[in-house]
Design goal:
Elements (H helix, E strand, L loop, with lengths): L2 E7 L8 E5 L5 H10 L3 E9 L2 H9 L3 H11 L1 H17 L1
Helix pairs in contact: 3-4
């Protein structure tokens, strides 16, 4: 299940001082306000990931994964590759 995460950073920390929140949490807005009041700023767009570890990896990659996903979505070779991977997973299940 893909989840949506929002990342927050301390300004001028070069993205090294960060934290994140699960946007589906019932306390997301309250926690967000607390972080903002502590000097954190919202960093970039929300990140979609299967878990928090994957979200942190994507955040640390500085959105290199966005270029990869764009390439996959616009390049027919990568689209076919994903289709074959999906079919293989269905056959071997």
């Amino acid at each position: 299940m893909t989840m949506k995460y929002q990342f927050f950073t301390i300004p001028a920390s070069d993205r090294k001082k960060f934290t994140f929140l699960d946007m589906s949490s019932s306390t997301f807005l309250v926690e967000k306000e607390k972080l903002l009041s502590q000097g954190f700023e919202v960093e970039d767009d929300a990140i979609y990931a299967e878990n928090s570890n994957e979200a942190v990896e994507k955040f640390k990659s500085n959105y290199v994964y966005v270029l990869e996903e764009y390439n996959i979505s616009t390049n027919p070779f990568y689209s076919l590759l994903l289709i074959f991977k999906w079919l293989k997973s269905k056959i071997s299940s």
